[in-house]
Write a structure and sequence with these properties.
single chain; mainly alpha; 9 helices; 72% helix
């Protein structure tokens, strides 16, 4: 987390990928442009929260146990939300729309680094892999999740709403923070919370 933050400050004053951002924005035409803009809107904060709740609900229904669903939603939230704090601290400007051949509408005026969209998508995939790790669906989830991450990452830079380094930093953030949240929050803290253990809760209310 500290490394991602420090690198963000360096990139803020030395945007080494500014030229690459302009070149990639050149692909924002026709079907590709419509697709990448749609991807950006689908994974915006509001829909992202809804996606998390829906997936958590499905996990609850399938597993018939609220704890895996809670663990999934917790890993997503605790990994995703702090990245916005880093964004406020670093406050790297978005790619300059005056330099882009194709402007994204509406123009995004908040900070650029790291990408909240990318942090969310990567941690969504990672959290699903945690849930499915002991099932036959693990390989498929990894494959489809990788494709989703690549598509969203390319969409963000083609839209020119983020620099390529914003996207890469977001991938690093989620791949390192999410496992830490899993170990500390799910493996260490959740088993100690009696109200999350139906048997323990039943014992607690008995005289």
């Amino acid at each position: 987390m500290l490394l991602v933050t420090v690198v963000g400050f360096l990139l803020k004053y030395f945007p080494v990928d500014a030229g690459l951002a302009v070149w990639l924005n050149g692909f924002h035409v026709g079907f590709v442009g419509a697709l990448t803009s749609g991807v950006y809107h689908v994974f915006s904060p509001g829909p992202a929260i809804l996606i998390t709740l829906v997936v958590a609900g499905i996990i609850w229904l399938v597993r018939k146990d609220f704890r895996p669903a809670l663990a999934f939603a917790g890993v997503v939230a605790v990994t995703w939300v702090p990245s916005d704090i880093v964004k406020l601290i670093v406050h790297r400007p978005r790619p300059d729309v005056a330099l882009q051949p194709h402007h994204f509408v509406p123009v995004q005026v908040d900070a650029s680094y790291p990408s909240g969209h990318m942090v969310f998508v990567v941690v969504l995939v990672v959290a699903l892999v945690f849930v499915l790790r002991d099932t036959r669906w693990l390989g498929l989830s990894v494959a489809l999740g990788t494709v989703l991450v690549v598509v969203v990452g390319l969409s963000l830079v083609i839209d020119a709403v983020h620099f390529p380094t914003d996207v890469l930093a977001s991938v690093v953030w989620s791949l390192t923070v999410a496992p830490a949240v899993r170990v500390i929050g799910v493996d260490m803290i959740m088993p100690r919370l009696r109200f999350l253990d139906p048997k323990g809760a039943k014992r607690a209310i008995q005289p």
